[in-house]
Design brief:
Blueprint: H1 3-18, E1 27-31, H2 36-52, E2 57-64, H3 72-82, E3 86-90, H4 93-100, H5 104-123, E4 127-129, H6 134-147, E5 157-160, E6 165-168, H7 176-186, H8 202-216, H9 219-228, H10 241-262, E7 271-275, E8 284-287
Parallel strand pairs: 1-2, 1-4, 2-3, 4-6
Antiparallel strand pairs: 5-6, 7-8
Helix pairs in contact: 1-7, 2-7, 4-5, 6-8, 6-9
Length: 288
């Protein structure tokens, strides 16, 4: 066994053991998009199941969104190469996005989760394994902070419907660099199915922003993740109805001020950009 297999295996074993994600002999539905993360997850669970004699019943499932040019056959072949059969659930995401209007990512995620939850109920499986990793934890935290004014992120185990279904994330402590190395070591090639809305997503903006920071200082990746698990309540604002009401008032006033500024979009030579974030879809302009 290679060092990368041992490293990723130890991290996944830590997530599974410390959070009690999967019991011996349990049936687990594994969501597989065909991308690097999901193939890594499926291969890793199959390997742990085989070497550890866990008796898990692994069921791979792929949600076909119905986008033009989407290739589900290659995803099924990739799962079979790992040694797990894959069920394909067909949906009509374009129609869902059209009904939802502007927020295409939310509509897609909602329909995808709905299909997976229904399938788990059909198979009478309490566990749905998703391939979110350490980088997804960081990105989700900043996305919620930036776009929803809330400090929250994904968890290694997330019970739903009064515990009837539990979302589990065995790659919780594994970052994307380890995922890529694991795939190369296992000689697995991700299936590239392009999402037509990917380039305009908020997650892509935050991901590119973080990648820029990681390139400048690799410690930022683990520091951000560790910081989420090392919060200091004594240095955070108190939580309560009165404080929340005050924050909403301030936020409303700031929003009105921003709208007033947006009514004057013509920035002349008397303006400059403090930081050029055009590569991330962000550009902060301040008066000179």
């Amino acid at each position: 066994m290679s060092w990368i297999s041992r490293r990723v295996g130890r991290l996944a074993h830590k997530a599974i053991g410390s959070n009690r994600l999967i019991a011996d002999g349990e049936k687990v539905v594994v969501g597989v998009s065909g991308g690097a993360d999901s193939l890594c997850l499926l291969h890793l669970l199959a390997s742990l199941n085989r070497t550890g004699k866990r008796g898990w019943e692994l069921v791979a499932v792929h949600v076909d969104p119905g986008f033009e040019g989407w290739n589900s056959v290659r995803v099924v072949k990739a799962c079979r190469a790992i040694g797990v059969e894959c069920e394909v659930l067909r949906t009509d995401m374009p129609a869902s996005v059209k009904r939802a209007g502007r927020d295409s990512c939310y509509a897609c995620a909602h329909e995808r989760r709905k299909a997976l939850f229904t399938y788990c109920d059909k198979l009478d499986s309490r566990k749905l394994a998703l391939a979110h990793n350490l980088d997804d934890v960081n990105e989700t935290f900043l996305m919620n902070l930036f776009y929803t004014s809330s400090a929250r992120t994904i968890l290694p185990a997330q019970p739903l419907f009064d515990g009837k279904l539990v979302l589990i994330r065995p790659l919780y402590y594994v970052d994307k660099t380890l995922v890529r190395r694991y795939l190369r070591d296992a000689d697995l090639r991700p299936v590239r199915n392009a999402c037509p809305y990917e380039r305009s997503s908020s997650r892509r903006v935050v991901r590119r922003f973080l990648e820029h920071l990681y390139a400048e200082d690799p410690r930022i990746r683990t520091n951000l993740f560790a910081g989420l698990h090392n919060l200091k309540p004594e240095y955070l604002p108190p939580k309560g109805r009165s404080q929340n009401a005050e924050v909403r008032i301030v936020k409303s006033e700031l929003t009105e001020a921003q709208r007033a500024k947006q009514q004057k979009p013509n920035l002349g030579p008397g303006h400059f950009c403090s930081i050029d974030h055009s590569d991330f879809g962000i550009r902060n302009c301040l008066p000179a």
